[in-house]
Amino acid sequence: MYRNPRHRQSIRASRSGFTLLEVLIVLAILGVIAAMVVPRFLGQQQTANIKATQASIHGLEQAVKLFSVSNQGEYPQGGDEVFEKLINPGNDPQTGRPIEPVLDEMPLDAWGTPLHYEYPNSKSDRDKPAIWSSGRDLKNDDGSGDDINNWTTPASV
Q1: Which residues contact 53 (CB under 8 A, 6 or more apart)?
Q2: For the whole prediction, is pTM greater than 0.90?
Q3: Which of 32, 84, 102, 117 has the fewest C-beta atoms lying within 10 Å of its C-beta?
Q4: Per-residue pLDDT tens listing for the chain (157 residues)
Q5: What is the CATH number of domain 32-149?
Q6: Contact 128/151 with Cβ under 8 angstroms?
Q7: What is the distance of C-alpha 7 from the center of its chain?
Q8: What is the Cα 93 distance to its own chain's centre?
């Protein structure tokens, strides 16, 4: 049987590529895979943010302990404004020499918001400063809600 070579080329040309149905099936499969994988990664990111914030709180606790050692055992008094004392402590009243800062910059949580500080501590009966993060919702709940703090046992995530 005689076939036209042009006819063969036109058949091959019309068959190259994917049909709309094939593309939609592949997209549906990718969507199902993404729906299974993405929540797992988001949960791991939340856990990492909480642990990073707990580490920031611990670092700030160490900084105020260092401050108290060089100030006759006294923690800096007040609220969030004490960060200025820790970053830029000024001069020693007796010698007039600059006091070494215990912080280089404002301490932030994993969501980029400043940590909160209070001493005397009205949040718990502990004799050390209360330090907390506003948490994932970025709303200061005074250490409750989703806030992460240094006076309760960390919740398992």
Answers
A1: 109, 110, 111, 133, 135, 148
A2: no
A3: 32
A4: 556 666 566 555 566 788 999 999 999 999 999 888 887 777 788 899 999 999 999 999 999 998 888 888 888 888 877 888 888 888 888 888 888 888 888 899 999 999 999 998 888 877 889 999 999 998 888 777 889 999 886 654 4
A5: 3.30.700.10
A6: no
A7: 63
A8: 38
